[in-house]
């Protein structure tokens, strides 16, 4: 089983940490985004432009994911799809998404979407701003996860 890192890259705040881990472990990274994103010119890093169609990048990531894949995403429905395909998910804040917790994460996400829909005109706070401690938690989590996948 060859490990690969698949990245939902459009709004990913931890790309540099992903590259560093990939270089340390000599693992391929595939970036998926609506349009071209600058990235290191390195044989381990590749870029797939999905176009602007709704969920185009998500569909490509889900198709590429499987056992041995580590998918970096904050998109819970996408994480559910890749976990179902046998991959592991990891959020940019360092939270592992796997078969043990993806069902409850998806249910919570759906509940919150329903609540926001019923509160039209009212503002609800979004996620807290991304912080240095989130970046550090991600760097630690990707190392732990890559070792768990047999790359350390």
Automatic annotation (TrEMBL):
Pfam families: DUF188. InterPro entries: UPF0178. Belongs to the UPF0178 family. This is UPF0178 protein roselon_02978. It comes from Roseicyclus elongatus DSM 19469.
């Amino acid at each position: 089983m060859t490990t690969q890192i698949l990245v939902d890259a459009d709004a990913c705040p931890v790309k540099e940490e992903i590259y560093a881990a990939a270089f340390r472990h000599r693992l391929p990274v595939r970036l998926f985004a609506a349009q071209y994103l600058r990235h290191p010119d390195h044989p381990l890093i590749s870029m797939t432009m999905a176009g602007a169609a709704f969920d185009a990048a998500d569909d490509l990531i889900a198709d590429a994911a499987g056992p041995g894949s580590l998918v970096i995403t904050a998109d819970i429905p996408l994480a559910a799809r890749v976990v179902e395909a046998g991959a592991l998910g990891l959020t940019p804040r360092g939270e592992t998404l796997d078969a043990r917790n993806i069902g409850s994460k998806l249910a919570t996400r759906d509940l919150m979407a329903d609540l926001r829909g019923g509160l039209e005109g009212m503002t609800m706070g979004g996620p807290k701003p991304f912080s240095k401690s989130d970046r550090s938690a991600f760097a630690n989590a990707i190392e732990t996860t890559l070792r768990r996948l047999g790359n350390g």
